[in-house]
Design brief:
Layout lengths: L2 E7 L27 H10 L4 E9 L3 H11 L6 E6 L4 H17 L4 E6 L3 E2 L2 H16 L3 E6 L10 E5 L2 E6 L4 H9 L3 E11 H11 L1 H13 L1 E5 L2 E5 L2 H4 L7 H6 L5 E6 L3 E2 L4 H5 L10 E3 L2 E4 L5 E4 L4 E4 L4 E6 L2 E6 L6 H10 L10 E4 L2 E9 L2 E8 L7 E3 L3 E9 L2 E5 L2 E5 L4 E4 L5 E4 L6 E9 L8 E4 L10
Parallel strand pairs: 1-2, 1-4, 2-3, 3-11, 6-12, 14-16, 15-17, 16-18
Antiparallel strand pairs: 4-9, 5-13, 6-9, 7-8, 7-9, 10-11, 18-19, 20-21, 21-22, 22-29, 23-30, 24-27, 24-29, 25-26, 25-28
InterPro entries: GMPP_N, Man1P_GuaTrfase/Man6P_Isoase, Man6P_isomerase-2_C, ManC/GMP-like_b-helix, Mannose-6P_isomerase_type2, NTP_transferase_dom, Nucleotide-diphossugar_trans, RmlC-like_jellyroll
GO molecular function: GTP binding; mannose-1-phosphate guanylyltransferase (GTP) activity
Family: Belongs to the mannose-6-phosphate isomerase type 2 family.
Length: 475
């Protein structure tokens, strides 16, 4: 048996803004132990018996970030592959494209285990037991979902009515009265969004219930650009082909219509951390019921969730609030309205406000940059370049740059010249000059960049050569 763990890493986690953003979504949020939700999903899969490969379906803008996350924890060098979408088309498209890839590479009888990238599971042993049962049912031709035994009358989850392993029906997110009835019944489970099936079974069910999605995704896979090397496979889907795939969830497209469904009831310490209250409960409350992460000073404060990754938060005489602080944004919301945080995110996106998309620190294939200060006609960045990494050979129309090396050595291309800049040295890059920054050393290169000009947007970059496939002239 070949077992392919398929991690779906999509969505933006808008209810967890301002930590979760379009280019730093919920799966990349780090918990107190230093690991991200995505890394935990990877490690959860890596411990399964019979695992052949870990396949991740994600947005192509998140590939290098995802690869970095996996590299930190993939000590066993498990083969990894990535299906890179140009934009989201929901879970039916993601699972359909994954099933095409798996049947082609591993055969029709390969078992696919679909996992979410942004959930938390505390009991690995119980999880592995549940997967073993799911594989048995999947081998018999079933589409299997993991059903979570409810811990409360939750209105934010979908439910499954079940009789043993038999699925009787799927239920949408219910109002509170119905959720309370489901909670007291022994026949209802939370729908976890985790599935197990043979690749061929899923293809048959896609053909029966949504043949247009199956056909469109098959065409996408056939037209995709595929690259392989160092144990990593990339399948880059073409945007013009992918836009022909209908947007639909796998639940609506297949699961709720199929007569092949089965469920494995389980108690695995599952949570989807869908809100700030849920995130706060990952830490123990203080004597007043407050959940605090980061630097905080509280006085006569009760039942609050406080989170800061940048500076001190102080509260006086407040109750039932959520207060979140990042370097560029502050969120204050009454707990009774925390689901409405998504409206703030939507409005920021509509305004094309930077804080809906990026943090002050931005992760790139070559390292990171952090915006330290910005004003009219100037921007100051802290840049870190990984050993051996290189930025693209590029040019800016509207800005000049001063580079000051703080530690390490920089190899600089400036026009026709190539030279080295060492610690405490600096150089100047005029506008309209082709230039490149490389770290030739074995330690991290840290430098300060001061930009000046009449336009300082990140889109004022013309790339001529690039090691990471971002150069249009080369594609």
């Amino acid at each position: 048996m070949k077992l392919i763990a398929t991690i779906l890493c999509g969505g933006v986690g808008s209810r967890l803004w301002p930590i979760s953003r379009a280019l730093h979504p919920k799966p990349f949020i780090r918990l107190k132990d230093g690991q991200s939700l995505l890394q935990k999903a990877f490690l959860r899969a890596a411990q399964l018996s019979g695992l052949t490969e870990i396949l991740t379906v994600t947005n192509r803008d998140l590939f290098f970030k995802t690869e970095d996350e996996f590299r930190e924890v993939n000590l066993s060098k498990i083969p990894t592959s990535f299906i890179l979408e140009p934009f989201g088309r929901n879970t039916a498209a993601a699972i359909a494209t994954a099933s095409h890839y798996v049947t082609t590479k591993h055969g029709h009888d390969a078992i696919m285990l679909v996992l979410t990238a942004d959930h938390l599971i505390d009991d690995q042993g119980a999880f592995q037991d549940a997967i073993s049962k799911a594989i048995e049912l999947a081998t018999a031709g079933k589409l299997v979902t993991l059903g979570i035994k409810p811990k409360s009358p939750e209105t934010g989850y979908g439910y499954i009515e079940a009789d043993g392993n038999n699925v009787l029906r799927f239920v949408e997110k219910p109002p509170l009265k119905e959720a309370q009835e489901y909670f007291t019944s022994d026949q209802f489970l939370w729908n976890s969004g985790m599935f197990c099936f043979m690749a061929d079974t899923m293809q048959q069910q896609l053909e029966q219930h949504c043949p247009d999605i199956l056909a469109a995704t098959k065409n996408c896979i056939e037209q995709a650009l595929t690259t392989e090397g160092l144990g990593i496979t990339q399948i880059i889907l073409d945007a013009n082909e992918f836009k022909n795939v209908r947007d639909n969830s796998i639940d609506y497209a297949v699961m709720e219509k199929s007569n092949r469904m089965a469920v494995v009831p389980c108690d695995i310490g599952w949570s989807d951390i869908g809100s700030w209250s849920g995130f706060g409960k990952l830490s123990e409350p203080d004597a007043e019921g407050n959940h605090v992460q980061g630097d905080a000073l509280l006085h006569t404060t009760r039942n609050c969730t406080i989170y800061s990754n940048d500076g001190l938060i102080s509260t006086v005489g407040v109750d039932n609030l959520i207060v979140i602080k990042t370097p560029d944004a502050v969120l204050v919301v009454d707990k009774s309205r925390e689901q409405d945080v998504k409206h703030i995110y939507a409005e920021l996106a509509a305004r094309d406000h930077t804080s809906h998309k990026l943090h002050c620190t931005v992760h790139c294939p070559w390292g990171t940059y952090t915006v330290l200060e910005e004003g009219k006609n100037f921007k100051i960045k802290r840049i870190e370049v990984k050993p051996g990494a290189s930025l693209s050979l590029q040019m800016h129309h509207h800005r000049s740059e001063h580079w000051i090396v703080v530690s390490g050595t920089a190899e600089v291309t400036n026009g026709e010249q190539v030279f080295y800049v060492k610690t405490n040295e600096s150089t100047y890059i005029p506008a309209m000059h082709k230039h490149r920054l490389t770290n030739p050393g074995l330690i991290k290169l840290v430098m300060i960049e001061v930009q000046s000009g009449d336009y300082l947007g990140e889109d004022d970059i013309v790339r001529f050569k690039d090691n990471y496939g971002r150069c249009k002239q080369e594609n």
